[in-house]
Amino acid sequence: MNKLIPAAFFGLILAASASAQNQPQPSFTAFLKNLYMGNRNEISRSAAKFPEEFYGMRPGPQMEVRTFGQLVGHLANFNYLWCSQAKNEKNPADGKDFEKLTSKADLAKALSDAFAYCDSVYNSLTEASGQEIIEITQENGRKRRINRLSLLALNYGHNEHHYGNIVTYMRMKSIVPASSEQ
Question: Is-contact 157 35, C-beta < 8 A?
Answer without folding.
Answer: no
